[in-house]
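Example protein
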Amino acid sequence: MLKGFIFDLDGVLTDTATYHLAAWHELAQRLGIHLPAAADTALRGRSRMDSLNLILRYGHQENDYDEAQKAALAAEKNQRYQTFIQSLTSADILPGIPSLLKNAKQQGLKLAIASASKNAPLILRRLGLFAQFDAIVDPQSLHHGKPDPEIYRAAQELLKLQADEVISFEDAPVGIAAIKAAGQFAVGIGEASALAAADYLVSNTAQLDYDQIVAAFERYHAR
């Protein structure tokens, strides 16, 4: 029986994913690293340090910095990112999300955030959504980033639910992989070619229909 929704944040509730990518591109450029087009997809959904390490590998600089220097680079990126998100308001909530959350609340579902972003509480407050969520996973409490299932299992545990009682929403391939590894039903938002492992797929958030998603979830568990 469905009892909860778990959401990634960046690129699902709001398009802050573009701000993350812009900040990473600025840092990469400063380091003299050219990021290929595929980097944007590869970086989505990853933790801050996993993203930094990936960028350094693109530039063959993975052995050029110690942990303290990496932490400083990650902090530099985050500082730039935070300047981008200062202008966020409820107008930046992606289409389809307000009605989806409203329907979930009306049906008594519990809601959680499973984002690698340490800025999730700040972003939710800027969007006016903070009070709607019952739990937010603290990424600093985790040992592994997506595609490891740890963050989705943590969200499920915070809601005190089982894997077959939740639906989780993602826009990144590593996020879908994490959801499936956690044994949960995965809703993918984006290109089918990148999110083929999702159990239910829409091309954008405006297509997120509560009744259709729940029906797909029920069919999945009736098999």
